Records
---
Amino acid sequence: MVRTLYWEDGAAMILDQTKLPDELTYVKCIDTDMVAECIINMRIRGAPAIGIATAMGIALGAQPIRAEGYGDFVKDLESAYKTLLATRPTAVNIEWAVDRMKFFLENHKSEPVETLKKMLIEEAGKVLEEDIEINKAIGRYGVAFIKDGARILTHCNAGGLATGGYGTATAPMRTAHAEGKKIHVYADETRPLLQGARLTSWELKEDGIPVTLITDNCAGALMNRGEIDLVIVGTDRTARNGDVANKIGTYMVAVLAKENGIPFYVAAPTSSIDFSMPSGDMIPIEERAPEEVTMVYGKVSIAPEGISVRNLAFDVTPAKYVTAIITEKGVFRPEDLKNLDEEGADLEKFRL
Ligand code: MRU
């Protein structure tokens, strides 16, 4: 499958997802600002993918620093953290990646600055490789919920393109497909930026996984007609009480799933769980430009000029609608997350 991002000759190569599915082009990012621009303008998007890009953006930010001592070096690196933290607010993975890189430096403070610069590049590469392994583990746990012949609904893109590869919501689907189960995926188109139409349906089709594209408005009708067996989505940030922030429209899907007696699963790396956040109402929700709603591709106007618009990019699905959260460490009931400490150290104990 196509690579979302990778290192090449000291530059972060980022697949420009705004051009998909028509064009496959990479942006060559040589500094923090270029990575931040890619995140803000959603050339790269999806919580785990923007976490990995953040790690790379920090490594790039370290390269031109001239300071010789550790103290000055980390001080100079702070502007890179700030730039990346200011890009998009909802996905906790950006904060997670900043913390991880800070922690890494803290643990290697005795190394010379020039060595640290190289080590940061390697560490960001590790974040990428680990993400793919994490997704495969999500696939191994999640496949248990997919029967032969299952019809699965997903929303937005929590696929390979939203991660280092393999995807979170798509991981159980890919695993089931690889095991020879006959599955069929229904992809919500996901207004306004059409991640379902442009990205999910494209990547699944490319990989030979049967997929049908539907409008967001069609999901409830299909559920009501008995044509959906389960829902699997991703998350940008899940709070300690199991409330799940994900792409706008996820809440509607979850309520409809409950109404129709359909299980609703959230697939997420544990880096997308914010153990410090007690509940979903505290999750910062990004609001984006009105033009994303009033225009198609920034070119064709579909609304009266000057119309008032609300363009919330994410919503919060209360834990009561979530059947289970599928992570790389096992499957959990949303209500069990509250039993975990800040680090999620007791995670093993609460597995389903
Ligand atoms: O605005 P986007 O495209 O970054 O939103 C992405 C989503 O909502 C995904 O479902 C979420 O980040 C999980 S990706 C594994």
---
Amino acid sequence: MITCSAPGKVYLFGEHAVVYGQSAICCAIDLRTRVQATKHDSIVIESVLGTTALDFEIHPYVSSVIEKMKGHANIEGVRIQIRSELPVGSGLGSSAAVTVATLQALNQLYACNLQLEDIANIGHTIEREIQGNASPTDTYVSTMGGVVLIPERRKLKDLDCQLVIGNTRKSSSTKDLVSNVAQLRQEFPDIIDPILDNIGKMAHLAEEPVNRYDYETTGKLMNVNHGLLDAIGVGGAELSALVYAARNAGAISAKITGAGGGGCIVALANETSASAVASAIKNIGAEAILTRNTHEGVRLEP
Ligand code: MEV
């Protein structure tokens, strides 16, 4: 029996724009998905979504991982048990985390000798097959941990501040949101392309302040990024209410994180303001999660 875990993520900059090759800064968070893999006489996948065999409707990511890993190992039967601290479909990278943790669990269980780069790459292929136009960001960050500038794959300094996540509890489909942005871009390329371009520029501009732990400057740029995500249609009244509640309660910055639609916002906060920011988020009916950046990507659990 093997247990592996992989972290979720938040974007400081660049969701959606990264799908078009622009830069993004994405950060692994201390909320994990744990996958236990045991050799068995048939394929069984167990999660809060139910118990299934290979099932591309209920467990599309884990089913795809098992199919892909059959190319590396003789998998006749395996029991996969999933437990996650990440809300599903909320923009915190739950699908990347379960994909990466399952890949590593099977890699270890069948001694396939896949390296971390291989896991990130296979994970990206799986996300792309299931979601359509997926960037490698979520699977790369879940595999490697830390704070990463994408597509350069450059590790930045780990964040030394609190992250407060506000969850609308409304799940959204990354595939649909990515496709809505694609349609808007097709309709108004001269308007949307410069917005995506500017989001990428902000990720580059923020590299230096992130590396010198300057969250005031980083935060100003994150707030601008939030406005631009709203402009490309992935915001909404609830997300904006959370963003402004967090900022008014003393957050350094707050923006949508992930695909948007429903899902989550992320606020940067210092040690003294974090609990006030979390309370402000709860006061308007959302879930608040206090977390931090984690340096550790996918790992073998004892
Ligand atoms: C989803 O977490 C982030 C998006 O940019 C999609 C992707 O990068 O694949 C919206």
